[in-house]
Design a protein that fits this description.
- The protein has 19 helices and 5 strands.
- It has 435 residues and is α/β, with parallel strands linked by helices.
- Helix 1 links the parallel strand 1 and strand 2.
- The N and C termini lie far apart (60 Å).
- The structure holds flavin-adenine dinucleotide (FAD).
Length: 435
């Protein structure tokens, strides 16, 4: 079906991983042009085909877009949904609208960078500008560099420089929702968004809420104890841009230095992925690509299912399988166990987390895995091997978290440890030592 092109010039705002209409940098810039703004989202078939059709993350995205669409109706606006590759979607848009500029927020993952370069070229060929803005982190990776202009590879000096940058600026607020209000056209009826093809939807959604100040104030003392459930659970909101990192950082600056540090870790890993895109599937320290991993499928399956015989490891894996979330302390313990105790390639674990974690973020996941496997920049030294039993005693002293996820852990039906810690430690030291 061909549709007639609307003649008056418009700009397009392209939603990606920034699903909110308040404090949205690129949306703000698009509205600021004064031209009519078309708000678009593309269900990218190149991404969809890599996931199971009922992946809950599709539902988060779609249900969030529905919410945004209903809100936009108050301002006489709506979300335009497209389905296809980004190029196919932009071909449709070009046929439909007289587009002058496309606005989007930056995405630093290597695949996203490639996509954006292609779209930039495609649009340039049609005489349309493509403008992108920093939004998912406070500072663009090129704004936190060493004095010689090279990227940092160690967290502590990166963090120092990041904080120095912060002292030089006022964190901006991009009042995009206010602009929508000011430019309000006659409210329109809400037209429910069509269900995207090839995706099975559920009611799964996430509330875009900031953490309570008290939780952030107590974060430093409580964050390492999984049974307390005392972390902020914002990772999934940041992943899809339901809340603004700038506003969260403001809160952290006020309430907790430790919490701010964690947000800086997130920016550090984004910077690493941006400057060293090969780390997606190669070790940052190249010599570790020579490790002879024990690629044992049966051992891997026991780890995936939470049947290793180490209650703390199994509790973490079962939490992940059941909820799509795993506490940070357990991410470290389970990743260390896979790579050091079982000597299984960190890429297997990274891929499993990518499939299961609702907050899956390539930069933090690759960074976290390479940290635990000692193959990364600024990683745990290879000779420091977590003892799961000691970790458990320290961070779950009354076995509360374990009891929640592995209720049978004291019974005879619970498996014996699949590998003895002392033996595994010695073996890991030998194998790592060789490279
Ligand atoms: P909080 O403890 O409340 O921290 C607040 C925010 O700070 C987090 O939401 C996150 O954005 C950031 N943050 C905290 N710790 C880290 C960290 N170590 N590295 C980077 N950012 C951090 N985080 C993801 O968002 N997605 C992932 O796919 C991911 N995979 C990981 C894999 C491994 C092996 C490890 C060790 C860590 C991984 N992390 C990942 C980091 C961290 O575990 C999660 O961000 C955190 O557990 C999310 O829970 P929260 O929001 O309650 O965190």
């Amino acid at each position: 079906m061909t549709t007639r092109q609307e003649n008056s010039p418009v700009v397009v705002f392209w939603f990606r991983r920034d699903l909110r209409i308040d404090d949205n940098h690129a949306l703000y810039e698009a509205l600021n042009t004064g031209l009519p703004v078309k708000i678009a989202f593309i269900f990218d078939t190149e991404i969809i085909r890599n996931f199971k059709s009922d992946d809950v993350r599709f539902s988060f995205i779609f249900n969030r877009l529905q919410e945004i669409n209903r809100k936009l109706a108050q301002y006489g606006q709506s979300v335009h949904l497209f389905h296809g590759t980004p190029t196919e979607a932009f071909e449709q848009m070009v046929g439909r609208w007289n587009m002058i500029t496309v606005f989007a927020n930056e995405d630093y993952e290597p695949a996203a960078q490639k996509r954006d370069n292609n779209i930039n070229q495609f649009l340039a060929g049609k005489g349309i500008e493509f403008k992108t803005y920093t939004d998912q982190i406070v500072f663009h990776p090129n704004r936190v560099l060493k004095p010689d202009g090279k990227p940092y590879t160690v967290f502590t000096p990166f963090g120092k420089r990041w904080r120095q940058r912060l002292s030089e600026i006022q964190i901006p607020v991009f009042d995009s929702e206010k602009l929508l209000q000011l430019r309000k056209e006659r409210a329109c009826a809400v037209v429910e968004l069509p269900k995207p093809e090839g995706i099975i939807l559920t009611g799964a959604k996430r509330k875009a809420a900031f953490p309570e100040p008290q939780l952030i104030q107590e974060y430093d003392q409580k964050r390492d104890y999984p049974a307390l459930d005392a972390t902020s659970r914002v990772s999934v909101l940041l992943r899809f841009g339901l809340i603004s990192i700038r506003q969260l950082a403001q809160m952290a600056i006020k309430e907790s230095n430790t919490y701010l540090n964690e947000l800086i870790w997130r920016e550090f890993y984004m910077s690493i992925l941006f400057h060293f895109p090969h780390t997606v599937n190669q070790s940052f320290k190249k010599r570790y690509d020579a490790i002879s991993w024990n690629l044992n499928e049966a051992d891997f399956q026991r780890w995936c299912c939470g049947e290793t015989g180490y209650p703390i490891v199994d509790a973490g894996m079962r939490q992940l399988n059941a909820t799509g979330f795993m506490h940070n302390r357990l991410r470290m313990i389970t990743a260390s166990f896979l790579t050091k105790h079982l000597l299984i390639d960190w890429r297997w674990g990274e891929a499993y987390f990518a499939q299961k974690l609702h907050d899956y973020e390539q930069s933090s996941n690759v960074g976290g895995w390479q940290w635990a496997a000692s193959t990364g920049n600024d990683a745990v030294p290879y000779f420091r091997i977590f003892n799961p039993t000691l970790q458990s005693k320290r961070f779950d002293p009354r076995n509360e978290f374990i009891r929640q996820w592995v209720p049978e852990f004291e019974s005879l039906s619970y498996p014996k440890p699949m590998v003895e810690h002392g033996f595994a430690r010695k073996r890991a030291l030998e194998v790592y030592g060789r490279v």
